[in-house]
Write a structure and sequence with these properties.
DNA-directed RNA polymerase subunit beta; mainly alpha; globular; 11 helices
């Protein structure tokens, strides 16, 4: 982001940790803050059995705003814990804000990606509520289950959406070539995100996702 406003502290960040975050950060400090805050959230969630804590974390963007979370994690490397968390939060927010587009892309892509469908774990044919539940379940899995599996599910979801976006682009190529070009680029971006999440899962299993 272009400005350097002090981020409002996420709901699960201890005030002592938040007070240590200065308003203007150089790139090295921003990276350190991203890693520390991501680790704090994940470790604290995994140390509690309180479902309300997990629910608050799943709904972090709704409570604090996407810009606040972006201040902390958007610049983090994809092969890092904060970078992976950022991608999953953005994916959930996309589902929340543009469910009909997500549903269309998923339905277009799912038949061509049966392995990804199995990993994502969405009933076929999917209904809107199924995709909402998937987005919430992936984030819940980050904080309570096998984080690598949660990352793989998010990656599989992105692969299906990427395939659906590519099919949608093909269908619009003649009637709206500009929209088709945008969708093709979006499909490529989704595929790259899928690969980044899957790589993050591998790093977590090796114990080196920091």
């Amino acid at each position: 982001m272009d400005d350097h406003r002090l981020p409002r502290r996420p709901a699960m960040l201890d005030p002592r940790d938040a007070d240590a975050i200065p308003g203007e950060l150089d790139p090295a400090m921003r990276d350190e803050v991203a890693h520390v805050t991501a680790r704090i959230l994940v470790d604290r969630a995994r140390s509690t059995e309180d479902p309300e804590v997990v629910d608050r974390l799943v709904r972090l963007v709704e409570r604090e705003g996407l810009d606040t979370v972006a201040e902390l994690w958007a610049d983090a490397a994809p092969s890092s814990l904060p970078g992976a968390l950022w991608r999953i939060y953005v994916l959930r927010e996309w589902v929340r804000r543009d469910l009909q587009t997500i549903l269309l892309r998923y339905r277009l892509g799912v038949d061509a990606a049966p392995v990804s469908e199995a990993v994502a774990g969405v009933p076929s044919p999917p209904e809107p509520a199924d995709l909402r539940r998937l987005a919430d379940a992936v984030l819940s899995g980050v904080f309570t289950g096998d984080l690598a599996v949660a990352l793989e599910r998010a990656g599989a979801f992105c692969r299906i959406l990427s395939t659906g976006a590519a099919f949608d682009a093909d269908a619009r190529e003649h009637s709206d070539p500009h929209a088709a070009t945008r969708m093709t680029r979006g499909a490529s971006s989704l595929l790259r995100t899928a690969e980044e999440l899957e790589h993050a899962a591998e790093l977590w299993r090796q114990g080196i996702l920091e």
